[in-house]
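Subject: for your reference before the review

Hello V.,

The reviewers asked for a structural picture of the protein, and I figured it would be easier to keep everything in one thread rather than splitting it across files. Below is the amino acid sequence we used in the manuscript, unchanged from the supplementary table.
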Amino acid sequence: MSASLPGNRELPASRYDLNTYWGRVKQSAELADPRTLFVSASGLENAKQLISAYKQGKINSMTPDLWHAKKVVDSTLHPDTGEPVFLPFRMSCFVICNLVVTAGMLTPGMKTTGTLLWQITNQSLNVAINSANANKSIPMSTSTLVKSYFLAVSASCSVALGLNAVVPRLKRLSPNARTVLTRLVPFAAVASAGALNVFLMRGEEIRQGIDVFPVLSEEVRAQKERDGTDVQSLGKSRKAATLAVAETALSRVLNATPIMVLPPLILVKLQQTEWLKRRPRMTLPVNLGLILTTSIFALPLALAAFPQRQAVDAHTLEKEFWDKGGKDGKVQFNRGI
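And here is what came back from the structure prediction:
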């Protein structure tokens, strides 16, 4: 992100009001804009140079070109490392990557082998995305990564296979009700394993803590820009890490809910219509269209549930931070995505 580029002058966090939910939705929609995937290496470099020029005081005010450069950089670079996130694991590629996987998991009438393969594929993608977008102030070892991956895969497969075995035995339910519940099994597996995946992948952050920084007033920020000094970390907080990971896990569930619930329920209704009964080959395209449409709207709504740069009262963290808060006694940290 732009915060990782050289220069002591801070860019505006967004052209939108990030203190409001809808402001964060608009900002998240920009981060998830797939058009940024087509920016070339030279285009990214030009965007970085433009932002660095602003941060070094060579450009006085924000312009449309600067806002576009910030959009490109924020959707491409990791805020902690300043390095590009591997393209398939960026939030701007999330809808595209998840389209095929989600369609596979929501395929009606899938057998055990198919269920296992698609759950493994989904959790593999989740591990990659969580690892690529996690807070990087705490590195993760390869052994922790592998262990987290297998635990998440085991959880999702167990939930999916277990519910697939239980639902048909619910004889008191009508056939239609059992059909609906069967279609919702992937959601239960994805939601439970997705949240677990985040905690497993980022468990080291909770154990060691993540960097927290003081929230600066306008006067202090301006002074640091004049002095050319950076904002230093106040230390690592385990409570901040727990909050960051929990909010990220919840946002994953919020994102999965409409994507994994609405398309299968709508498809059940559509399959009862004469139009789709006469055109069974249209089931897959209709399913893909439902998933794509839902995903496009669901991702920004879920990402916006919590601010990425989270500001909290210093007294809600460990005692060592109580007298280190900045403006209004608050500190902030990078939640990750």
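For the response letter, the relevant points are probably these. The CA atoms of residues 314 and 323 lie 8 Å apart. The chain has a mean pLDDT of 85.

Happy to draft the paragraph if you're swamped.

O.
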